[in-house]
Amino acid sequence: MIPSQMLKGTLEGCILKVISQKETYGYEISEKLREYGFSNISEGTIYPLLLRLEKNGLIIAQYRESPVGPKRKYFSLAQAGKEEMDRFYSSWIELKNAINKLF
To answer: Which domains does the chain have, with CATH numbers?
Structure first.
């Protein structure tokens, strides 16, 4: 299990990556993260991050009809989100390399 303190600074970048793969909605994002090994992330953690990413212009939200139940809020990546995702990944590689050298 990945400690929540370690996830804090990386989760936004990971959510941007999931959204970059295809237009998606909150629950689907949390399921995709679980598939990749982020097992201890609740939807209650993801939704505030999605709101912040939207407010900051990194993702675009659009309500659509759902095949089951109420409308869903679908997210897609804005150009600023793509640029932020690329910056995140570059920083992640730099941090990973530094930690690998240390250990």
So the answer is: 4-102 (1.10.10.10)
Q: Report helix, strand or coil for 64.
A: strand
CA angle (25 as vertex; 27, 67 as ends), nearest 5: 90
Pick from 4, 64, 73: which is nearest to 38 by CA? 4
64 phi and psi, to 5 degrees?
-140, 155
Answer yes or no: are the C-beta atoms of 18 and 29 closer than 8 Å: yes
CB 43: neighbour CB atoms within 10 A? 12
51: tokens are 């709101």
The number of helices, as runs of H, and strands, as runs of E, in the chain is: 5, 3
pTM of the model: 0.91
The string of pLDDT tens digits covering residues 27-74 is: 999 999 999 998 878 878 899 999 999 999 999 999 998 888 889 999
Instruction: Determine the 3-state secondary structure of 76 from DSSP.
Output: strand
